[in-house]
Amino acid sequence: MVYEGNTMRLEELEEEMRAIERKIDAFYVSLLPMLNRERSAHPVKVEPGMQTQLPQPEAVKPAPVLKAQMQPRLQPQAQPQKPQNGNYRVKDIGLAGQGGLKIEWAERHMPVLMRIRREFEASKPLSGVRIAACLHVTKETAVLMRTLKAGGAEVALCGSNPLSTQDDVAAALAAEDIKVFAWRGVTNDEYYWCLNRALDTRPNITMDDGADLISTVHSKRADLIPNVFGGQEETTTGVIRMRAMAADGALRYPLFAVNDTPTKHMFDNYYGTGQSTIDGIIRATNVLLAGKNFVVCGYGYCASGIAKVARGMGANVIITEVDPTKALKATMDGLRVMTIAEAARIGDIFVTATGDKNVIRAEHMAVMKDNAILANSGHFNAEISIPDLESISASKRRMRDNVDEYTTRAGKRLYLLAEGRLVNLAAAEGHPSEVMDMSFADQALCAEYLAKHAKDLEPLVYDVPEDIDLRVARLKLASMDVRIDTLTDEQKKYLSSWKEGT
Ligand code: RBV
Questions:
Q1: 400 CA to centre of ligand 1 in angstroms
Q2: Using one digit for the tens of pLDDT, what is the confidence trace for 216-231?
Q3: pTM
Q4: Number of folded domains that form the chain
Q5: What does 3-66 look like in DSSP terms, one character per residue?
Q6: How far apart are the CA of 431 and the centre of ligand 1, in A?
Q7: Residue 164 C-alpha to ligand 1 middle, in angstroms?
């Protein structure tokens, strides 16, 4: 009994401690406007055309007294190899053998793209076409690059995120005489250096994941525009940027919104993001998901995919949303929906997948539990405010690969995964090959379409032609040995008439 009494007392004290910790953190948050003024007095220089992003952790000055406690970034910047023939710049060309095996593994799981490759080998629809691609440099992207090359294209590839390049895959492509400018851990300047080397090839087609090629061509390298037939965009964030360009009247060549075609977003965004995000969180932390309060910010295709997988692993999933319809869908899917302010107090793991910025801010971090884990799966590292995390922290250290521990002034620890960059590509391998099979089949067929029909297109944003989308779906079904029915003539007639009723 005495023992139980002591335990009770201990628990009460601990609870009080946690309440005090939160109050101290909240106090520091109340000082943030002052810190922000300090920050804007010392702005981070952003070159026009550079990726706009929040100041990186190093750029935020910690209070002088705390400086000694802050540890430097523990992950050294990758030292890329000097270009050997001007055709590539990768971390280590010696990794080519290992990368080649990974690509071969992906090929075994990408039957649709491989089938298209065989057709391309025979008909060479991209003969002489120069393609610059800014995509995550993964084994699946490598299968796409090989396919475009098999179709006769000259391909140049750069990475679409500083932390998503698989260095062995980059080396394997470089060894195959594909121009590659990418290594994991590029700085912002290096990122744009790589992108510009891909653009130096004077592409006829730009293939983007995040619209950085399109926006750089339009804002800084407009001299390239006369050569460009058109562009293709892989992801939601990029399509949003592309449509904003079109609405501004700034667009100067036709673009295909590959993301928006059903065989892309219904599978890649939902199943792909769902599995790879959970994979990234688990590889980084190895925490048990069962029983955890797992907060997903957003409930679009990506976020709902993440929620589904987390729930399947036994987590208590909580959704935060700004869109009433999506919030309603989450509620009727049996999930708890609440504001981020409420969720912040109870979440064990937070994942953002909204495509917006500053979704998790200082006021939320201040009330989080000790040990909370923060991850992002959206395209840019702007969804979790890293400057806010730096501001409320007294020290930071790298705990393990892809896990940074931030300790607040009150001693609470928050764990940021993959520096707030897309956790599925930075801490795992991105989406599985089977879904990228469809996304990249759409990309390959759109490139073929552009090579054939670009002259008939206006500088507008186009949907992927329906016959391409349906063809990809049929090929995927066939590869899975699934057969479906066809309409009878009677049914076709019925569906196209309005006269038959009750
Ligand atoms: N993505 N690519 C991979 N394994 O190559 N994984 C994910 C891969 C793409 C995906 O299509 C999504 O739209 C985009 O990355 C987000 O940047």
A1: 24
A2: 999 999 999 999 999 9
A3: 0.88
A4: 2
A5: HHHHHHHHHHHHHHHHHHHHHHHHHHHHTHHHHHHHHHHSPPP--TTSPP-PPPGGGSPPPHHH
A6: 6
A7: 10
